[in-house]
Amino acid sequence: MFLDIFALLNSSPTAFIALVSILGLLIGSFLNVVIYRLPLMMEREWKAQCDELNGIETPQNEIFTLSVPRSRCPHCNHAISALENIPVISYLFLGGKCKQCRAKISVRYPLIEALTGLLSGVVAYHFGVDWACLGALLLTWSLIALTFIDVDHQLLPDSITLPLMWLGIFFNLFTHYTDLHSSVVGAIAGYLSLWLVFHGFKLVTGKEGMGYGDFKLLAALGAWLGWALLPSIVLLSSLVGAVIGISLIAFRQHQRDIPIPFGPYLATAGWIALIWGNEINTAYLGLMVG
């Protein structure tokens, strides 16, 4: 039966792309939960560990995981039903407001759902019905979650970056994106390159220019895409970060002394390299030779 479904999807690329895009919308709804709850879960865990070290008894709070309790309106505590949680459609149907108290719902929720659906469709179009498509979808969804968590909290959780690195090496056991040697070297080089930049910058300026989560994210991207694409990822992320950072400061949307998270730029560059990395490297080498 599985082979029949596989053959059916392979014979209809349009249906496959549509199906993956719809799946992406549903995953985007789940990513909204991850982006909001995972940092809070980590904060609770850190506090409990600190209390334990200090001999303080931690009060028993309600269970708080990615699935419990049900999503609620932060204003009136109204439990969101399944019909109110249909990606994008529910937001539009409700007019962007809570069904009960009519408080505004952030437009970021449907935007993340739509973004996840769109990028998932692009991945399906690029890779087709193949195991490489499954891996690329997992990488895409992880990068979206990391991007918005870093924007909100300047944090790249180990619970995402480290499994992502090992997952990249696993997929490259079967050479889906690069060979195993390039994958392992990519993970090592990705981590060490930013580690050296971090300590060099700190030695010269006395300040920390980035967090350790950035090292782990680049290591994960190196594990997925191989060491040869790391220069393109670093260059592209630096250019995008510089342009956006300067623009925010120029238009006074960001104070100079407030750090700008680098993770979203790494994630963006990594996803671009996933889809067009070989073309970018070919064009770059062509310019260098020319």
What does this structure look like?
With 290 residues, the protein is mostly helical. It has ten helices and no strands. The chain has helices spanning 2-11, 13-53, 89-93, 108-127, 131-153, 158-172, 180-205, 212-225, 230-250, 263-289. It is globular. The mean pLDDT is 89.
Mean pLDDT: 89
Q: Helix content range of the residues, please?
A: 55-70%
Structural class call reads mainly alpha
Rg of Cα set: 21 Å
β-strand amount = under 5%
N-to-C CA distance: 53 Å
Q: How can the largest sheet be summarized?
A: none
Give the helices and strands, then pairings.
Layout: H1 2-11, H2 13-53, H3 89-93, H4 108-127, H5 131-153, H6 158-172, H7 180-205, H8 212-225, H9 230-250, H10 263-289
Question: What characteristics describe this protein?
Answer:
0% strand; 10 helices; mainly alpha; globular; 290 residues
